[in-house]
Specification:
The structure is a homodimer of 199-residue chains.
Chain A lengths: L7 H16 L6 H8 L3 H7 L3 H25 L5 H15 L9 H8 L7 H23 L5 H22 L3 H18 L9
The structure holds a DNA duplex (18 and 18 nucleotides).
Chain lengths: 199, 199
DNA sequence: GTCTATAAGCCGATAGAC
DNA sequence: GTCTATCGGCTTATAGAC
């Protein structure tokens, strides 16, 4: 909130955030974080009790900015809800073309901490994705689209799937395919199929 | 191919597979693998040049069995292509309810190795997912469904998304939601929408 | 709040005997 | 092919001065 030149704590989180995202939390040492932040390790441990606390702070710092980014991408696209959602995926694909892109920090951290379900970072990651799903649901309900609860969950699945596939194959077109699937699902929900198309 | 009591190499891969999947590759030491396999570390390094080689062997050993599992789940479900695909996701959700379930080993390994795109394990993981996508495509084309290339890619996205979401939230119902989305997408592709439903 | 210095142990990988 | 023993380096975290 305050606009200080940047507190020591903020500089630590900024340094950790860059390193954790670029290399993965398990491959970054506390020494590396301290060096990147321009402080000693003793100072680092003064501000954060443990590496696990720092990991939690890293994800906490990315929660709101990431959500705002998705919302800006959605709002910036012309058309109805289906078009706007597809546009959001198109912007995501564009962002994934940046050389430093390395997937979703929340999902990658969850993958690394899969054997520690109670880890604070897992809860933050789960909360972040829940917020995305909830936001999408309010969007669908505001647009008068039925089945917003199921639909928003399906959009989230396409989003996370596109993060995983784009990272594994280093191919952002998976995100565009996810956008097309999202578009088709929203269109189907917007105009329920007549019975002639039933099974 | 041979049905020996189990060669040393096979026992090593079996031990590594259990440990890597349960704890994540970065959290498992070569000491732990050797101990689990009942050999010394020197013997382990006689059979595998490095840990990276062992990681590749781990994923290679899971490639075919995993694909066969998906195909068996698909075949075991009654109905048409859409129902069979949804049934496959339902079986996946059931498997995810096992206490030892920890997501997709290929995706979790890719997340850990995100900063090493050229790692052999990344190529094996990408190949595995490509095979799944290709298999789905042949299924759709054999059933006479149009757009099999795009559709199979969208099913893969739902699959990977459900792995990620189910792991993060520890909630297998995300896989059932993915199955419903897959069902809807396949039904739409099977019976193209008449123009009254166009935008 | 930040520093220098170090504890105590684990890491991947190797030497050399048999 | 398997063993005992160990290297050199890196890991998280802490002690005590200022």
């Amino acid at each position: 909130m305050t606009s200080q030149p940047a507190s020591t704590r903020e500089r630590i989180v900024a340094a950790a955030s860059k390193l954790f995202y670029a290399e993965g939390i398990g491959r970054v040492s506390m020494d590396a974080v301290a060096e990147k932040a321009g402080i000693t390790k003793r100072t680092l441990y003064y501000h954060f009790r443990s590496k696990d606390d720092l990991i939690a702070a890293y994800l906490n710092g990315r929660d709101q900015p990431n959500l705002l980014l998705f919302q800006r991408w959605f709002d910036a696209t012309d058309g109805g809800t289906a078009e706007k959602t597809r546009g959001m995926f198109a912007s995501l694909a564009q962002s994934a073309r940046h050389p430093k892109w390395k997937g979703c920090g929340f999902l990658r951290t969850a993958a690394e901490l899969a054997s520690m379900p109670g880890h604070p970072a897992m809860k933050i990651g789960a909360g972040h994705k829940k917020k995305f799903e909830q936001w999408m649901r309010t969007v669908f309900e505001a647009a008068g689209i039925e089945g917003g609860a199921l639909l928003s969950r399906q959009i989230l699945l396409l989003l996370d799937g596109s993060f995983a596939a784009a990272l594994l194959h280093r191919d952002p077109t998976y995100m565009e395919a996810a956008g097309e699937a999202a578009y088709a699902l929203i269109m189907s929900a917007s105009s329920p199929l007549p019975q002639i198309l039933g099974k």
